[in-house]
What does this fold into?
Amino acid sequence: MLDRIKQTADYLRGRIANIPNTAIILGTGLGALVDHMTDTVYIPYSEIPNFPVSTVEGHSGNLIFGKLGNKDVIAMQGRFHYYEGYDMKQVTFPVRVFQALGVKTLFVSNASGGMNKEFQVGDVMTITDHINLFPENPLRGRNYNELGTRFPAMTEAYDKKLIRLADEIAAEKGIRLMHGVYVGVTGPTFETPAEYEFFRVIGGDAVGMSTVPEVIVAVHAGMRVYGISVITDLGGKDVTQVPTHEEVQKAAGIAQPKCLEIMKELVNRAD
Ligand code: HPA
It folds into this structure.
């Protein structure tokens, strides 16, 4: 594993002179961020040694190096979901490569279903914590001390300072930014009403099919993490709305400007 990470990092260093120390995983709801980047270099995942290739509709696969405002960033356009059949090491491989490249701060975004009764479709939510309900932890198996400690704490997986900064930015811009616990599940089924209810009762505010594996690896790697989630549908025992992929995409598109405004400013103000 270490050799493969190094090989990929070396390849990227050969293509990009100045490697940024900030990376952004663009989920559903933040794809348009790339339109706000300048001086971009697109590297398709298919050209990157050891990178899996993204398969799902609506997610193109490119690593994009460039500037967002004044900040040099690496953006992942398209992520690898567990439901696509990738194993956890593949899902989190890009984060390991970021680590090898010296990335210190990781921003992640996703679409999710809201269980919190205060939430509305189109809300944006800062992820303050998560509940890992994937059947597997990405750190299962041999631990490489070079990459991180065997038993990493997840007490403060999401950086408090970045959470506060995002709140300040949202207040300045008049954006309603919720806080909440993200429940990570495999999908690809959306939840039954009883499942949404269960996730709410155990302390979840939103549920989605990504992010948790990448964040676990980023924390293991010693990175600071900020996560934002777009609420694309609502679920619970009294909710009769049936979520579809198309609806999720549409709601994410509508909420995207809010997500973008926060993220652009946050990436620039984060030291
Ligand atoms: N459940 C799981 N994942 C999701 C949802 C949902 O309701 N909405 C968007 N991603």
